What does this fold into?
Amino acid sequence: MIYCGIDWAERTHDVALVDDTGQLIAKRHITDDAAGYKILLDLLAEHGDSEENPIPVAIETARGLLVTILRTGKRKVFAINPMAAARYRDRHSVSRKKSDPGDALVLANILRTDMHAHRPLPQDSDPARALAVLARAQQDATWNRQQISNQLRSLLREYYPAALAAVEPWKNGLCRSEAHELLRLAPTPTQAARLTRTQLQAALKRAGRKRAIAADADRLREVFRADYAHQPPLVEDALGKQMLALLMQLEAASKAADDLAQAVEDAFPQHPDAEIYLSFPGLGVQLGARVLAEIGDDRTRFVTARGLKAYAGASPVTRASGKKSSITRRWVKNDRLNHAGYLWAFSSITASPGAKAHYRRRRDDHGDWHAAAQRNLFNRMLRQLYHCLQHRKLFEEQTAFPAQLAPAA
It folds into this structure.
């Protein structure tokens, strides 16, 4: 049996091959281009790599063109956490020496000794991998939009509190097109106080408002003309220019999030598992796509539902030593799936009577706090999702949350 370890970098990679005894039988330094990939595949084929008996590969990343090339055929690729690789390095040397060829050798020996303890990259279909790209990009764009919105809010508090009071009644506040039009029209409170009803109504119409234009314009006029403290004129103008720069970033982030959301709307219903995900209470297109993106459609990835729940951070961790034992939440997890699970559990409480009863039971009978009760509900929903995916069944409320029979008289 031959094992391969690759220490990857931005421009070059180091490759090491070891046999069953741990003897280094080949090493190579390749470039990160098509020529380097061909050298790597030829090196693997030279040492017995074939479609029937592929050589397993360990590498410290799960993405990139190199990983895509290695995942062709039936070859198993193991993405080793760099922290785990650092712990393995100490087994071979206590002097803390480190080199790229040495790291490749360590990765190869990880597979030789503990391949059974590591999970290979899942064999997801191309539609699932494409959907994962879109769903993660949309999630990143949403987080980026919220971060820029928070920066803009913090800046407005320094010199323009009237703007925050103006957008407060609107849902999504600073992310709305009406707020963008108003801030672009009047970047400082001095300019906002001079706006007329006609100008305010025109700004709301440019933003796409169809109803209650006159009433909102009157409200905005009163807010902008109220008595507020002001920065010195020069400082106020400078802060207004800084605000316009942040506003441009927020508009770009909002457009990116909306465009990616539309791409997810188009791609998710085309996946064969979409019907199963959408049958669950609390899962819509965007949230269902995020869950599918992190779980994938490789049915052999998780042997049991317990593995999926641990991967999502829904199941607790038990630490026991001697007479001491503690049960705590799981910190090492898939953060994206865990975040989607929090939103899923929160939405399912109002969408499913059984989920709401389970949540109340955890709060009232077990004394869980809100987050702990939601995490327990997410744990249960994940187990049901795993069962439905394995057996190709849709969610059924009565089966998932059977009503308790009344005690006999």
